[in-house]
Design brief:
Blueprint: E1 2-3, H1 23-30, E2 36-39, E3 49-52, E4 55-66, H2 72-77, H3 83-93, E5 104-112
Antiparallel strand pairs: 1-4, 2-5, 3-4, 4-5
């Protein structure tokens, strides 16, 4: 489900400054290797600008997705070589978490601001 405007989105549960915080992920965004972040809540509004290392990235799309629907292409969008690498990274960041296919996450897609 893609939401085209902010009026259809639930309220943000966090701030855009917390969307991408891991140094390796920041580097991936700045280098163009990471163009999306999945979170358990909404961390930005469509059109909001994220600043990383003096560069700006605009949030273009926000939509919900089940973990079981995440594809190899989605994993590459997250900056990983494969879905399995993405899964292992997520699980290592959240000790005790299981990859639950029906768990819903919010996908934030962004691109360099023009």
């Amino acid at each position: 489900m893609t939401i085209e405007n902010n009026t259809s989105l639930p309220p943000k549960t966090c701030t855009i400054e917390k969307l991408v915080t891991i140094p390796a992920d920041i580097d991936k965004v700045v280098d163009g290797q990471k163009t999306a972040t999945r979170r358990n809540g909404i961390y930005a509004d469509i059109g909001e600008v994220m600043k990383l290392k003096d560069k700006q990235f605009i949030v273009e799309r926000i939509y919900q997705q089940k973990l079981g629907e995440v594809t190899e292409s989605d994993a590459r969008q997250e900056g990983y070589q494969s879905l399995e690498a993405y899964k292992q990274s997520i699980l290592s960041m959240h000790p005790g978490m299981k990859w639950v296919p029906n768990m819903k996450v919010w996908v934030h897609e962004y691109a360099p601001a023009k």
